[in-house]
């Protein structure tokens, strides 16, 4: 007989699984619960029933069928929607994860599987001492990029153990807050700005000495060059569609790792997702600079980004220089000298600040409207591959270029006026051949209008190229970034401008260099080993005096100056189109690219964007721009949420300022990228 009390009650049995490591203790428990029992109360009842004395504070309920955490402990089971058929697992929120860093080093650390990925990445970066965590994210390697490795695995047996840096004892790994000292505005320099080695007091910032030493010494140092055989085994994209595969596996920053089917001890890639490296400072960013350098290095070696033969040799020379300095002990002895230099530099900076700089220049900048005027060659591509080259008098004012028949006719009407706002600017340079060209792709109603400008020398090219780059972003030569841009272009040209000397010619015999480690496989096939060595040593003459950190920063700058830098590709189908296209997503624009030819069709600037949203039912991204321009597309190579997050992420990063506090506005990030379904 059932008593009236039991018959009338609303209790029901709930089967719970406990994820613990104790042998001989049950893992499944049945509890009698009611719908108005809150999640915290359920935890308490379960722990009392388990009868194991341990710290349960990191445990929470994971709802297997719905793939969600029950983290709001004050919510009742009814409010959560939990019924008798629910499979709840009582498990730890922090679990071990393997992360492959940009330098191909694998670290093993404890990460929150219940926090949103954005927060988890922020915690990981604190552990690894990488500032600006918003620039990074986690990437699942897609199946297409693993095929080559799988074939190799069948033929050869690799050792099961890999050289893994274990950081499971660091404070953030244990769920403790990291020392905020590393991120304060008045922080002490923690790296030597010349060698990138940790300053003597660095280790005291960490609560765990051994973890600090490992992080500082290994992650801030460049890895030794890989063998050509290893390089040949890695995935190398051949087409734009192949490059699109590289960006298919980005995790959703607004969901947790568990919600995205990541399991304990899985391996993910930690990569710089957004190519806007804000406030790089050698005193604090040795690990960050090294990891950006490594990501750039691998992108060059695996041909994820195209570059010319001349540029490849510069990248090879810088890599050779970095590897040489990393192996030598000389960098360790430069700390004392650099400390004096730092003090002198700080004092001179303070002096300039207090004096207020040069006043006459300030007045000049306000009253003078910057203008460029020169004789340049205009190259207009014609049919049947013939080009018409003619010299005109060009005048660059604000964000547009006008050209005239000659200097005398410049007071009249121009032959044509080119508005560069929103255009694509592509360098067309060969220093050895004295070719200094600028390719402009100017948006017009039916696509892109191609115009080539040919300059006479390096100085003229640097001034016009910098003006074009700024104008494409809607900025004029009055902008403070104009002169630094000119200097950056000149320094890159200077690296390209080397001459063969007798010393460099005789050196290849004496130098123990494996040139195949510093160039992509395409160039290994094109040149013999001795030829490559000689050419790399030629290029090395221009960079041989650089310090280790300077060489890495120059490498990053050279990578940033490549035409394809910062573009992440996706295969899409535009609304109304019958064929697939490639969409390039950059920090300031979207580019529609012809999949067959690789030519840009149209460019849309974020600065002209009014709104963007996703129709989740048909998985379509829709974007509205100024002047009633609107586009819509479905993404074929990845989830449309990835592109949506990319756009919102770049807009979020554009709001950063050195004046603001270092703390991230996480709420704003999710507002711009979340795209609530």
From TrEMBL:
<dbReference type="InterPro" id="IPR040790">
    <property type="entry name" value="Kindlin_2_N"/>
</dbReference>
<dbReference type="GO" id="GO:0005178">
    <property type="term" value="F:integrin binding"/>
</dbReference>
<feature type="domain" description="PH">
    <location>
        <begin position="377"/>
        <end position="473"/>
    </location>
</feature>
<comment type="similarity">
    <text>Belongs to the kindlin family.</text>
</comment>
<dbReference type="InterPro" id="IPR019748">
    <property type="entry name" value="FERM_central"/>
</dbReference>
<dbReference type="InterPro" id="IPR001849">
    <property type="entry name" value="PH_domain"/>
</dbReference>
<dbReference type="InterPro" id="IPR037843">
    <property type="entry name" value="Kindlin/fermitin"/>
</dbReference>
<dbReference type="Pfam" id="PF18124">
    <property type="entry name" value="Kindlin_2_N"/>
</dbReference>
<protein>
    <submittedName>
        <fullName>FERM domain containing kindlin 1</fullName>
    </submittedName>
</protein>
<dbReference type="GO" id="GO:0005925">
    <property type="term" value="C:focal adhesion"/>
</dbReference>
<dbReference type="InterPro" id="IPR011993">
    <property type="entry name" value="PH-like_dom_sf"/>
</dbReference>
<keyword id="KW-0130">Cell adhesion</keyword>
<dbReference type="InterPro" id="IPR037837">
    <property type="entry name" value="PH_Kindlin/fermitin"/>
</dbReference>
<dbReference type="GO" id="GO:0007160">
    <property type="term" value="P:cell-matrix adhesion"/>
</dbReference>
<dbReference type="InterPro" id="IPR035963">
    <property type="entry name" value="FERM_2"/>
</dbReference>
<dbReference type="InterPro" id="IPR019749">
    <property type="entry name" value="Band_41_domain"/>
</dbReference>
<dbReference type="Pfam" id="PF00373">
    <property type="entry name" value="FERM_M"/>
</dbReference>
<dbReference type="GO" id="GO:0007229">
    <property type="term" value="P:integrin-mediated signaling pathway"/>
</dbReference>
